[in-house]
Amino acid sequence: MVDNVQTSSSAADIIAALNAKAKAGSSTAASDASATQDRFLKLLVTQMKNQDPLNPLDNAQVTSQMAQLSTVTGIDKVNTALQALNDSVTSSQNLQAATMIGHGVLVPGKGVDLTSGAGFGGVDLEQSVDRLDIAISDKSGAVVRNVNLGAQPVGLMNWQWDGRNDAGEVLADGSYTFAASAMQDGKAVDVATLQFGMVNSVTQGKQGVALSVGNMDGIALSQVRQII
Q1: What percent of the chain has pLDDT over 90?
Q2: Which domain holds residue 197?
Q3: Both 84 and 134 in a single domain?
Q4: Alpha-carbon distance 101 to 98, whole Å?
Q5: What's the whole-number average pLDDT of the chain?
Q6: Chosen domain end from 39, 69, 98
Q7: Pair 73, 159 in one domain
Q8: SS in 3 state form for the chain?
Q9: Structural domain contains residue 1
Q10: What CATH number is attached to the domain comprising 187?
Q11: What is the model's pLDDT at position 100?
Q12: Do residues 159 and 59 share a domain?
């Protein structure tokens, strides 16, 4: 199993910091909306104070400008509500991601980390197959183990390697790669390969929540196919 190297910050600390940031953003949006409304009202009052007494604003003009004020205020409220919704979704994603720290996940990839004589991986099949084969290679690209997993149903499945080569010899711990091939009725079937790793940390960036999984960084939350 891949060693778990968890950061010193707890999940609760991460969530608290992100929630504080979200609250600050909401307060700023509300403040901007209030400032816009105040400027509009000041402009309207100034216009009415300085109007020509012989040609004052008629009711239609005043009503029109008040309607504009109402429209601007409504748009600001909608923007504030959308920002609050976005902050809520972001906080939810952060909470979900933070709870994954210390758990094993499957993400797109072809790597296999052999640790203490055990390696793990996964595949995602578009359809059921008559035969599924896994070929594991070392750092030089040489195939060290071929595994026939037989017939498999459609969907996601994970597999385990005992760390031995085709001759039954125990191989050294380290990083390996694998390839998967499948056949159905004598025809090749596409196979999506999945790499196993432990979630070490969570990062909130411009592109959203990113995970550090094993020796891989910048894994998007949407790339996680299975939590083990």
Answers
A1: 44
A2: 104-227
A3: no
A4: 6
A5: 79
A6: 98
A7: no
A8: CCCCCCCCCCHHHHHHHHHHHHHHHHHHHHHHHHHHHHHHHHHHHHHHHCCCCCCCCCHHHHHHHHHHHHHHHHHHHHHHHHHHHHHHHHHHHHHHHHCCCCCEEEEECCEEEEECCEEEEEEEECCCECEEEEEEECCCCCEEEEEECCCECCEEEEEEECCECCCCCECCCEEEEEEEEEEECCEEECEEEEEEEEEEEEEEECCEEEEEECCEEEEEHHHCCEEC
A9: no
A10: 2.60.40.4070
A11: 82
A12: no
Instruction: For residue range 50-65, list pLDDT tens digits in order.
Output: 766 666 666 666 667 6
pTM of the model: 0.60
* Integer Cα distance of 195 and 213 in angstroms: 10
- 197 and 90 within one domain: no
Q: Which of 68-77, 183-192, 215-224 has the highest mean pLDDT?
A: 183-192
**Which of the residue ranges 31-45, 95-109, 132-146 would you say has the lowest mean pLDDT?**
31-45
pLDDT digits (tens, 9 = 90+) for 150-176: 999 999 999 999 999 999 999 999 999
* Residue among 106, 104, 115 at smallest CA distance from 174: 115
Specify whether the CB–CB gap between 131 and 188 falls below 8 A.
no
**Domains identified in the chain, total number:** 2
162 domain residue, yes or no: yes
